[in-house]
Amino acid sequence: DVSKGESQVQAFLDKGQPYRKSFSVKHTVEGIENLLEFLKEIERVTDGKKPSVILESTGHYHSPIIQFLEEQQYVYIMVNPLISHRARSTSLRKVKQTLSMPIFYANYSIKKKLSRIRKEVSNS
C-alpha cells in the first residue's frame, strides 16, 4: 500500500501464507535500504527466487518505489486503483483495508500469473 512519503509492506511466501508482520517503509534513502534488506531476506528464504512486488498505482506517490525496483531489477505489478477498489467492494465481509489489501494483491497476482500461463500454453 503506497501513500505519500511511506509504503506499507506485506510479503507472502505462498497464497494465504504471510511472511512476517506488515511494516512501514519511509520513502527515504534509509527506508528504501530497509526495503532492499527485506527483499534480500525473502530471496534467502525462497532459495534465491527474487520476489515480485505488487502495488497500487497512486499518482506520483509510488515513483520512488518504482525507481528503486527498476534499479534493483525486481519485477513489479502495478494495479489500477479502480480495479482493486471494485474487487474489494465485492467482498461480503468488511475488513479493515490495511489488513485486506496485501491479501487482495497476492490473490490478484496469482490470478494474473495463471491467466498469462494459460494463454502461453494455449498459444504453444
How is the topology of this model organized?
Elements: E1 2-3, E2 6-14, E3 17-26, H1 29-45, E4 53-56, H2 63-71, E5 76-79, H3 81-89, H4 97-123
What does this structure look like?
The strands form two sheets. The protein has a three-stranded antiparallel β-sheet with strand order 1-2-3. The longest helix has 27 residues, at 97-123. A hairpin with a 2-residue loop joins strand 1 and strand 2. The protein has 124 residues and is an alpha+beta fold. It has helices at 29-45, 63-71, 81-89, 97-123, and strands at 2-3, 6-14, 17-26, 53-56, 76-79. The protein has four helices and five strands, in the order βββαβαβαα. It starts with a strand and ends with a helix.
Entry keywords:
single chain, 124 residues, alpha+beta, 3-stranded antiparallel beta sheet, two-stranded parallel sheet, 4 helices, 5 strands
Report on the biggest sheet: 3 strands, antiparallel
Query: How many individual β-strands?
Result: 5
**Termini distance?**
36 Å
Mean pLDDT: 78
The backbone outline, from C-alpha atoms, is: globular
What radius of gyration results from the CA coordinates? Answer: 15 Å
